[in-house]
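Chapter summary example.
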Amino acid sequence: MLTKKQQLLKRFFDVVMSILLLPFLLLPVILLIIIATLRTKQFGIFMQQRIGKEGKPFSFYKIRSLKGSNHQDINDITMHQTNFGKWLRVSKLDELPQLFNVINGTMSWVGPRPDIPGYADQLKGEDQIILSVKPGITGPATIKYKNEDLLLLQQNDPLIYNDTVIWPDKVAINKLYVKHWRLINDIGYLWKSVFA
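The structure predicted for these 196 residues follows.
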């Protein structure tokens, strides 16, 4: 678990990174929202309740990539995805609005990905250490499962595969991330996320 000093350092890094990147990301985010609105016929920002630090729910933002969908069912990806939406998801540009989650303090640049209710909020025992940090835009588990949507689509039962294979592995990876947190590691994960 991160010490108070480590938590302050992590937040300081998040704020500084956000301030530095905001001037460069604001215009692309606005343009993507406009395009997504035109392509999906719905407002281009998708908002959903996710589980954050200490198991508390928060509003999570993405560029809308699916047409007429709630974004929760893996089958929605093939049924409702536009070509623009597919490009957004592959490029991960749909994640850009989470910059505002970082600014408002509900997320960090690096950490465990925030899940829908029914996963992180159900953690027990030492697995709950994951909830001691803010969820992140990227992190070691996110990098390992960067093609998670495609992997799930290859399974006969995506939900069972997620719950019995991917989710337990993510929990193990994220526990190690929290236990061995160092700022230099966060910088490394950001670098890999952008350039890998």
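To summarize the output: The chain has one domain: 4-195.
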